Every structure is written in structure tokens, then in C-alpha cells.
Amino acid sequence: MPTTVPTAPDGRAGIDASLVRRLIAAQFPEWSGLPVRPVEVDGWDNRTYRLGEDMTVRLPTAAGYVPAVAKECAWLPRLAPSLPVPIPTVLAQGAPGEGYPYPWSVRRWLPGEAATEERVADLGRFAADVAEFLLALHRCDTADGPGAGAHSWYRGASPAHYDDETRRCLAALDGRIDTVRATEVWQAALAAEWRGKPVWFHGDIAAGNLLVADGALAAVIDFGTSGTGDPACDLVIAWTMFHDDSREAFRRAVGQDDGAWARARGWALWKSLLTVAECTDPHDERIAVHLRVVEAVLADHARFA
Q: What pLDDT digit, counting tens, does each position of 243-256 carry?
């Protein structure tokens, strides 16, 4: 067997259902008779496959995502009892094998669909429920928790880690966005230094990681970028999913001081600038989405800064 998996054209480690079947048969033969099939909506950091009706197999697509496996296996069981909605339950941790070079995990299937405005019965209520989840997460015991760093892609740390990258994006997008106002937002984010005690953060509170059932928040998934530190990164959904009344509902429910919101605007700006700057196809639908986020962030800064 080869020691590495050839990289697929999409950069996701050549993972397919056949590999998953071989891994299960070799390491968890009690589940080898169960069908394996891709999930309908997959992520980038990990590939996920249904295993029977009640389980999933989750495999990192690159070395940078590997630290999340052990982290989630260790911490999700400790966090779950304190949270108002379900989060993933890890049933087993797999080892490299069958030509696949990374650790991986088997989890219990969580029912629900990725959040969209159309699937949510009341967006303001949903925003408040997301805020309730975040506040409960912030109250979880941080003793021995993983401090923000490379494993969290520096979520939970200062957005200054991405200063050079953001300024390159600002230069590249001059003429496409209001770079003067955007620079003001970024500088305000850097100036709003976090001095609080570390709390648990999720790191990627986004529509795709929020599951909806019967129009309401049903579960939160993908804690790969979680850790302990500054929770400002978890406020970005204020501009990526919420708007108008729902944004205000989220702001009221989640609280946080002016500095946290300034840093959150910086996190949102960095990600959207990077996405737009890296899109090589002018018709890529992500461009319009992230340009709207930039405009929303700039307007928010003008209103509250």
C-alpha cells in the first residue's frame, strides 16, 4: 500500500466511498456491512460519508485539518452537556491506513439541514437561539482547553495574525470596494485589543454549520476551529446570515462590548476580502455574496464605531 493518498483535482486527498469502506472493514469490522454513501452537502476541510442510517465517517482532506480530529474527540463530550442543542457525538477514532495518511472519526448522524433563510421559520428567533448557544458555549469550563493557535486557524486570537494578508487583499481590490473605509474597519479591529479571560469559541459559526429542523435551530456541527480565547470571531454571522431585524436580535441577545464587535467586523472583512480577491472566475457567485458582506460591515462600522 502507498503511504500517501494522491491529491485529487479538487485538492481533497483523493477520498472516496471505496476508501471509507476499506477503512471501516479494516478497523471497525462490526460496521463493515453497513452502506457507505456521500452526504448531500459536504465541506472542504473534511469529507463526510453516511455510514448506515445512524453514523457518519469524517476524514480530514489535508494535514492542516488533522489537529481537529483529536481535539473534537477529546472535547465534544465535555462540552455537549452544557449546550442547549446537540453537537456531534464521536463514536470512534480511526487511524491512518489503506493508503490514507490521517486520523479520522466515526460520529453519530445528526438530523437536520444546513440553515438557510428559507428553512428558518423566524429568522429573529433563530438569531436569538444562535446567541443562546454561543453564550452557553462561553460559560463552559476552559480548564486545560486548547488555546487559540494554528489548530484553530488563529480564530480566538487577534485578527492581527492576518494583517499582511488583509492589506494585500485591500490593495488588490482597490477600485472594486471602498478601500479607505475598509482600511478604517480593519485598523479599528486591530486597535480593539482583547483583554478578557479566555472562553470557549466555535470558530466557524456559519449557516452551513447550523442545522435546522422544523424551522428551528436543531444542532451545531464542525468544531474543528474551536478553542479557548476571544469569542469575537463567532459574531461574524451577524453579517453573513443575519440582516436588519435579525441582525439586531442577534446583537441584543449575544451582547458583547464595542471592542468585540470591532474585532468581529475585522474577522468578517478579512474573510470576505480574501474570498473575493482569490476568485478567478468573475461569475463566481461567491463574489456578490462577499461584496454584500463587505458593504454590511462598512455600514455597521459607520453606525457603531
A: 999 999 999 999 99
Q: Is 178 helix (H, G, I), strand (E, B) or coil?
A: coil
Residue 87 falls within a domain, yes or no?
yes
Does the model's pTM come out above 0.90?
Answer: yes
In a domain, 287, yes or no: yes
* 178 vs 161: CA distance, rounded Å: 23
CA pair distance 129, 124, nearest whole angstrom: 9
Rounded to an integer, what distance in angstroms lies between the CA atom of residue 146 and that of residue 297? 30
| DSSP 8-state symbol, 150 | G
**Residue 37 covered by a domain:** yes
Residue 191: inside a domain: yes
* Residue-number span of the structural domain to which 45 is assigned: 17-108
* CA dist., res. 266 & res. 300, Å (int): 11
- Contact criterion met (CB below 8 Å) for 148 and 228: yes
The three cell numbers of residue 47 are: 469529507
